[in-house]
Amino acid sequence: MSAPVLETENLVKVYGRGESRFDALKGLTFGIQQGESVAIVGKSGSGKSTLMHLLALLDEPTAGVVAMNGRPVSQLKPAQVSELRNDTFGFVFQQFFLNANQTVLENVILPLKIAGVGKAERKRRGMEVLEQLDMADKAGNRATDLSGGQKQRACIARALVNGPSVLFADEPTGNLDTATGEVVEDILFGLHRDRGITLVIVTHDDDLAARCQRRLLMQDGMIIADDSGEAVRSAGAGVGQPSRQGSRRVGGPGRHAAPVVVDGRGPDTGQGNDGNQGNDGNPEGQA
Amino acid sequence: MRPADIAGTALGNTMRSKTRTFLTVIAIVIGAFTLTLTSGLGAGINKYVDSMVSGFGEVNQVFVMPGVDASAQMPGSTGPQEYEPGKAQATGEFGMSMLTEDDIATIGQVEHVTNVDPIVFVAAEYLQTAEGEQFTLDSLGLPAETSGLELAAGEAPDREAMELTVPESWLEAFGTEDPEAVLGQTVTIGIRDLTQEVHTVDAEIVGVSQAAISGVGGSPMPSNALNEELYALQTSGLEVDQPQAYVQAVADVEDLAAHEQDVKAALSEEGLMAMTVEDQLGVVTGIIDTVTWVLNGFALIALLAASFGIVNTLLMSVQERTREIGLMKALGMSGGKVFGLFSMEAVMLGIMGSVIGVGLGIVVGLVGNAALVNGPLSGVAGLSLFAVDPVSIGLIVLLILAIAFLAGTMPAARAAKKDPIEALRYE
Question: What pTM was estimated for this model as a whole?
Answer without folding.
Answer: 0.70
